[in-house]
Specification:
2 domains, 9 helices, four-stranded antiparallel beta sheet, Creatine Amidinohydrolase, Chain A, domain 1, single chain, alpha+beta, 372 residues, Creatine Amidinohydrolase
């Protein structure tokens, strides 16, 4: 985590809060907290909450006493307020809001805060109006700085090395269960420098038609499509890559689908440049698939932003008119899924720059037959 960037982030957040008439942010679980404080809260029932006033005082991190040793202090950004087992953290947060914000404040709360904490806070602060904190933070987090871009590039390069091993046939497929292959991909991600593995999807044969298939006991056979989608985090920033390989020469229709998906993915990447709406990138990829006659089988958006979280703004989807800016980083991952038969997806992480797209993943996208 780049703690040197935290003071400037806090200044930008406060500026955005004042522009949105938000008096305080209450940041708990989710990515806003580590992005602004450097601290990753454990998803406990005990409340952790960063209280960020729009004016004046430093932010205050309310944290369980037993978790306080994990906090790395950043005095320019926040002070730490530990709470003991017999104290009421909601009362502490409410008291801070009472001191740092107006009597009828507008409060932005983390999108992923526990509902139990929100309900107690609402009861304790009956005069407050509540909004999602992401209305303030998401647009700021979506534009990555130079350090974040480098972290995302490192994460993508590490995932690339695993994808390259898969494509080279080093990860044996035929006769192994999807679950076993998933576990090997996870081990390889760790070996390549990932601190955490978030997912390692392996969908074979008919299961490849399920975009978020849960790897199970099915054994991979010859002559099948195998969709492998995996990622985790390096230095707190995420990777995400998908490659589809084949355990034998694919039938003509499936080969055609693969070619169409590869063309769609390339078209989506080419569309990336500053000022282009996210919806246009989605359309560039989707139109290729639709024109080829497979539009009904492309059942998800073209991409999602990536950073501290695996899915965050900006979303590359048909109803998002947000124009791309340099520093936006997101996936481009069109797919075609024929239920009960097979599926194909190709995914890379792409950064928008002043000069157009910068593709962070370089593993081969060519149709690859392995384990013949």
């Amino acid at each position: 985590m780049n703690r040197a960037a935290l003071p400037s982030r806090l200044a930008r957040v406060r500026e955005a809060m004042r522009a949105a008439d938000v008096d305080a942010l209450l940041l708990s679980l989710g990515a806003d907290l580590p992005w602004l404080s450097g601290y990753v809260a454990m998803p406990l029932e005990r409340l952790t909450m960063l209280v960020v006033p729009a004016y004046g005082e430093r932010a205050v991190l309310v944290v369980p006493t037993l978790e306080a040793p994990r906090v790395v202090p950043v005095p320019d950004v926040f002070e730490v307020k530990p709470w003991g087992e017999t104290e009421d953290p909601v009362e502490i947060v409410s008291g801070l809001v009472g001191k740092l914000a107006p009597s009828a404040p507008v409060l932005g709360i983390s999108d992923r805060a526990w509902s139990s904490a929100l309900l107690k806070l609402q009861a304790s602060l009956p005069q407050a109006d509540w909004v999602a904190a992401s209305g303030v933070t998401a647009p700021l987090r979506a534009v990555k700085d130079a350090w974040e871009l480098e972290a995302l590039a490192r994460a993508s390069a590490a995932a690339d090395r695993v994808a390259a091993a898969l494509i080279a046939g080093e990860v044996k497929l035929i006769g192994r269960t999807e679950q076993d292959v998933s576990a090997e991909l996870a081990r390889r991600l760790h070996a390549e420098g990932h601190e955490r593995v978030e997912f390692a999807i392996v969908g074979s044969g008919p299961n490849s038609a399920s975009p978020h298939h849960e790897p199970g006991a099915r054994k991979i056979g010859p002559g099948e499509a195998v969709v492998c989608d995996f990622g985790g985090s390096v230095d707190g920033y995420c990777s995400d890559i998908t490659r589809t390989v084949f355990t034998g020469p694919p039938p003509r229709r499936l080969e055609r689908i693969y070619t169409v998906v590869a063309e769609a993915q390339a078209a989506g990447v080419r569309a990336v440049r500053p000022g282009v709406p996210c919806s246009d990138v989605d359309a560039a990829a989707r139109d290729v698939i639709t024109d080829a006659g497979f539009g009904e089988h492309f059942i998800h958006r073209t991409g999602h932003g990536i950073g501290i979280e695996g899915h965050e703004d900006p979303y590359i989807v048909s109803n998002n008119s947000l124009p791309l800016s340099p520093g936006h980083v997101f996936s481009v991952e069109p797919g075609v899924y024929v239920p009960g038969h097979y599926g194909v997806r190709i995914e890379d992480i792409v950064a928008a720059t002043e000069d157009g797209p910068s593709v962070l993943n370089q593993a081969s996208r060519a149709l690859t037959v392995v384990d013949v």
